[in-house]
Amino acid sequence: MGEIRSIVILTGAGVSAESGIDTFRDGGGLWEQHRVEDVATPEAFARDPDLVQRFYDMRRAAIQTKQPNAAHDALARLDAQWTGELLIVTQNVDDLHERAGARRLIHMHGEHLKAWCTACDARSSWLGPLGDRPACPACGVAGLLRPDVVWFGEMPYRMEDIYRALNRADLFVSIGTSGAVYPAAGFVREARASGAATLELNMEPSQGTHWFDAARHGPASALVPAWVAEMLEE
Ligand code: NAD
Question: Of all atoms in ligand 1, which is nearest to the CA of residue 93?
């Protein structure tokens, strides 16, 4: 491998698992006892907005009681100290990366702690419930705020920025993600095609594990600090 200047890191629910936030596939296809199709699709929201809002209200309240773990802390340290290019692309909608201090971060699937007004398109910070149909702080219209999260079938955010970074990357690292949700699951092939070295850090081999040059399996709280220390030659 040549000199590494530019790193892209993809994270998934496995990074937050040890903070006590449920991953999705570890629940046997259920997410907090709900089938994903019943809570995380635009069709579900159209059919039963109260159920979907209650589900997200519960998750939004829960993540505010959780803390970043050693994996988030290590990635924030790498972000602060890596003098080359670096981008953390997270599929997670929790705010644990930024609470740990990460700055070069894209939330490709949106953020739990934001509400999106379908009347005026504004996005606002949101810590409380949406199920009681509050008014949008920007336009004042009540009842048309939804969680600012990307549901299955919707377009992830900032894909142009992400592909630009993947095409420049010397190293692509995938952490705590099952490799089941596209387009994120295809990032490893995009980075490889542009000549990047690729590394997987996950509890178990992901669905795309054979696309990676190297893989280490175990808990993120151990694997990520060890890898970051290697990168910073601590
Ligand atoms: P996933 O649930 O499909 O897969 C999680 C992966 O993490 C699995 O491969 C599992 O083996 C691994 N894992 C579990 N515990 C781990 C640990 N302690 N250390 C290392 N790896 C561990 O998650 P995904 O691939 O991110 O896709 C799920 C989708 O659901 C995403 O689109 C995401 O937006 C959403 N989601 C987000 C959160 C969150 O924000 N924290 C939580 C659940 C789901």
Answer: 40
